[in-house]
Amino acid sequence: MPAFNSLPGFREFYPEDQAIQNHIFDTWRKTATGFGFQEWEAPVLEPLELFTEKSGEEIVRQLFNFEDKGGRKVSLRPEMTPSLARLAAARAGSLRRPVKWFAIGENFRYEKQQRGRLRSFYQFNADILGESGPAADAEAIALAIESLRAFGLGETDFRVRLSDRTLWFLFLQSIGIPEECAAATLAVVDKLERLQPDDLLKAMEEALAGSPANPAEALARIRGFVAQDSLEKLAAFFAGSGPVSEGIQPRLADWSALLERLAAFGLSDFISVDMTIVRGLAYYTGFVFEVFERDGDGRALAGGGRYDALVKKLGGPDMPATGFGMGDVTLRNLLEAKNLLPAPPSGPDYYAIALAPECRSASLAGVAALRRAGIRADYSFKEGRFGKLIQAAEQAGAKNVLIYGPDELAAGVVKIRNTGTRAERTIPIASLVPELTKTFP
Ligand code: HAM
Questions:
Q1: Hey, which of 12, 69, 393, 404 would disulfide with 359, CB 3.0 to 4.6 Å?
Q2: Domains of the chain (ranges plus CATH)?
Q3: Cα–ligand 1 centroid distance for 382 (angstroms)
Q4: The pTM is what?
């Protein structure tokens, strides 16, 4: 790789690309603040330890970590949730609950780059802390949906696949899978759609090693469980399965409460119950979800869920939390495919040209005055021929040209030419700002 190329999986943004990024960030920010979320930020470089214990094996393998010159083990952040939990833990006593915070930041994962997956990506995070009930999960899911709708996407474009690690743990317990094997079993479930039957069985044998549970039977029962794709079916599934472990009925009531709230928000059409979603990150404890493009097997647009134990693990008090992260890469691909990206930014409203060196001062003074008045104004660095300068104004995408020529200067006026219609009018130099603020935009 030549030394002057950027690193694999890292991106560069030319102005037209950055304009799209800004549109994405602005839309995220506007939706989140509209929901009453406040913005926060944390360092991109963090102590390695913040991630090694808290995020789970998959992400740890993908860390961009190194030792700094002071011998500290550090890592670029692969996600923002552990940093958020640390911030919340440090001020837990004084934060007014529920805490509704969002962040937009760059994250780094040492992954094999492929479509929708890079080594650097931006993520919109929105989290609610201090509320353990499904009301907070509903609010987080509603924000995930509305922030996608704000780009012009609708229920035919994406859906939220909703699942629940609490119900999973209860189900695994009910089929005799010991607690210590539950996390490893869920890691296998995470691969249910990707692995061949033989590999799946092997993975399940490993997950259940040392336990009396039968891997093939467990897999069959798991397949029965993930086939339940509505709350009604889940309720019937557990009702018919004889004595079920304590806790399933209250958990199904939480599901009802969550789905009722989402229905009240008018968002039911975006939701599908999908128990195949278990999430790769280790800290999730309850409802979990991922947002996918409706057709196509693209990578997730967003993922999240409840993580009630993380703040405590980072030294804080008990502080339940739920939230999601939405990436910019898959979203941008989808918006492009659906033709929902904004038009490229337009040029200045006024572009001043000076036809001779003695006109320069007047033209610069005019530009400066317009800029101070909040009008987008630009100018040609060089004086010269009318035709060439008009061309420069058009290339800059200017809507109007301010022409400062020797004749205009002698008469104390400036000529304004509309680049589209080519219509011209003349106004006194002294009344430039009042005139243009009057007619502007
Ligand atoms: P995650 O599922 O790892 O969750 O990431 C969330 C989203 O970030 C993904 O759905 C995807 O859009 C994007 N993303 C992740 N990795 C990459 C990558 N290598 N390239 C491009 N985009 C990527 C989390 O990170 C959790 N911390 C989210 C969360 C917040 N949970 C609760 N609060």
A1: 404
A2: 15-337 (3.30.930.10), 350-439 (3.40.50.800)
A3: 49
A4: 0.94
